[in-house]
């Protein structure tokens, strides 16, 4: 069980670093809003994070 928690933590930190490297501080803010909204079961906060990430991803296509 502790090995699974360690692997999960390493994956999450690696994913956050990848998002920050590719999308900057705005990407981290969107990911943070999405995560907080899901954990707090707040649809408004998670939707704001999802929209922010969607705008970042669709930005070059617009």
Description of the structure:
It is built from two helices and no strands. It is flat and about 45 Å long. With 62 residues, it is mostly helical.
Features:
62 residues, mainly alpha, 87% helix, 0% strand
Could you provide a short overview of the structure?
The chain is an all-alpha fold and about 60 residues long.
Question: Secondary structure elements and their pairing?
Answer:
Layout: H1 2-39, H2 43-58
Radius of gyration based on Cα positions? 13 Å
Structural class given helices, strands, pairing?
mainly alpha
Overall 3D form: flat
Distance between the termini: 45 Å
Low-pLDDT runs? none
Order of helices and strands: HH
Q: How much β-strand is present in the residues?
A: under 5%
Mean pLDDT: 85
Approximate helicity band: over 70%
The count of DSSP E runs of length 2 or more, i.e. the number of strands, is 0
Please give the oligomerization state of what you see.
Answer: single chain
Largest sheet geometry:
none
Helical run tally: 2
């Amino acid at each position: 069980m502790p090995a699974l928690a360690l692997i999960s933590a390493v994956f999450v930190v690696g994913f956050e670093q990848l998002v920050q490297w590719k999308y900057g501080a705005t990407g981290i803010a969107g990911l943070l809003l999405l995560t907080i909204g899901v954990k707090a079961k707040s649809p408004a906060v998670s939707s704001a994070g999802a929209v922010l990430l969607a705008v970042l991803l669709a930005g070059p296509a617009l």
